[in-house]
Amino acid sequence: MVGLFARANYTSTSMPPISRPRGTEDLLPDRLAAMTGAVAAGMRIASSFGYREIATPIFESTELFVRGVGDTTDVVRREMYTFPDRSGRSLTLRPENTAPVLRAFGESSLRELSPPVRLSYAGPMFRYDRPGRGRYRQFHQFGVEAIGDGEAELDAEVIAVAWDWLADLGLGGISLQLNSIGDAQCRPAFRQALLDHFAPHLAQLPELDRERLARNPLRILDSKDRATEELMATVPRTRDFLCTDCGDAFERVQLALRAYRIPFQLNDRLVRGLDYYVRTTFEVWHEDLQGAQNALFGGGRYDGLSELLGYPAAPGVGFAAGLERVVMLAPPPAPLAAPQVVVCSAQASVVSLAIDLAQRLRRDGLTIVCDVGRRSLKSKMRAAERTGAGVVGILGEDEAKSERVTLRLLSTGEQVAVRLEEASAQVRDWAEASARGSLS
Ligand code: AMP
Fold it and tell me: Which DSSP letter does residue 217 get?
């Protein structure tokens, strides 16, 4: 083999260890359980609002993001994992999931359903970003999209899904930041006002902000640069430029948010990084997240996106939350459950019987770890205690003859020999007694 698969001539002792790629994370069981638990809670809440889960491919044609997210955005210009496949098509690991979900909506029977079509998703996203606290190159998002309907109350609804989810996870210290960036009708005047505001001060601006002004002036409101900040005090506000339709829609969003009893702060500088947004934009910030990484999640309305992708008009609104950040800040869930029973074989001759018993107990709904290796029973017992198991089941030749198993309740040392078919009932009796606090 040559090229990619060629093996260097290492001896087994000199092989350098291979580590995970920079900016990625191995989700070890505790963290993965926290993440899947958070997703399950999100899906449950979204489903109580009528959202149904969808999964789209992890890679898409590059054009989807160039057109959908916009080629002036940081995400498309600098952060995409783009590669040609073997037939030369340009593919990209998805950096976000709104454009893919809209594409799936546009090319499937979903678009024949009565709008709005409410969809939820969770999965990995990829951005070539500088890794840091709460910032990865492969990260995970949970999000929802409500597609096919431009009613402003839907904007508040997707925020309510997110808000209820965070409450369910017990996450405090959050604030909802809300803005409207207008639409194709009123935004040009605002854009011009921004250009006029900064025009006399171009020399003071850093290179990146001058570039932003030239390409996509709204993005300068995102700037964290000190020189630019100083010019922000008197910067025009989008709110003052909204046309009647956008102004009315913004009022309706706020009214609905009050009905959901969700507090919010109007934030004139919230423009968000992706080009497809119109009207409502929002982020949820957490007090412990700093600087550019303070958003737990963000979203907004994207009424023209479907047409950009080449499909019929389908207005929509949604949010995406970073699961790494949510899990980092939410109170930790209960630790991993210990096995209820460790089944140990005392001799090699009873291994089959021990495996058979373990399977029988699992079918009865218990969590069983099976220890049928060659080690001594004593070391198996010590290992069983370390797992935090409640009960150890010991099978030796004596037990095999009488078709019994010795069960030992580790918390009290109590020990009984029961018939194999009675083992799960005995474990459950102990578990119930322990829950009642009536074990001696
Ligand atoms: P965005 O699509 O940029 O609005 O991101 C939505 C949410 O995804 C953010 O608020 C973050 O919580 C999360 N997020 C975005 N980029 C990253 C990243 N590189 N690493 C971890 N989380 C991220």
Answer: G
Tokens 């029977």, residue located: 109
DSSP string, 190-206: HHHHHHHHHGGGGGGS-
211: Cβ below 6 Å to ligand 1? Answer: no
21 lies in a domain?
Answer: no
CA of 282 to the centre of ligand 1 (A): 13
Is residue 139 within 6 Å of ligand 1 at its C-beta?
yes
From the CA of 323, give the closest atom in ligand 1: 12
Q: Is ligand 1 within 6 A of the CB of residue 126?
A: no
69-99 confidence digits (pLDDT tens): 988 888 999 999 999 999 999 999 999 999 9
> Is any ligand 1 atom within 6 A of the Cβ of residue 140?
no
Strands 341-345 and 391-395: parallel
Is residue 57 located within the same domain as residue 156? yes
Residue 323 belongs to some domain of the structure: yes
Atom of ligand 1 nearest to the CA of 326: 12
CATH of the domain at 375: 3.40.50.800
Cα–Cα distance measured from residue 27 to residue 320, given in angstroms and rounded to the nearest whole number: 20
The DSSP secondary structure of 12-26, one letter per residue, reads TTTPPPP-PPTT---
CA dihedral 181, 183, 185, 189 (to 10 degrees): 20
Alpha carbon distance 284, 132 (integer Å)? 20
Q: Report the nearest-CA residue for atom 4 of ligand 1.
A: 298
Burial class (CB in 10 A: 0-12, 13-18, 19+), 17: exposed
The answer to whether the predicted template modeling score (pTM) of the entire model surpasses 0.85 is: yes
Give 34-51 pLDDT, tens digit per residue. Answer: 999 999 999 999 999 999
Domain span holding position 410: 341-436
**Which residue minimizes the CA distance to atom 12 of ligand 1?**
322
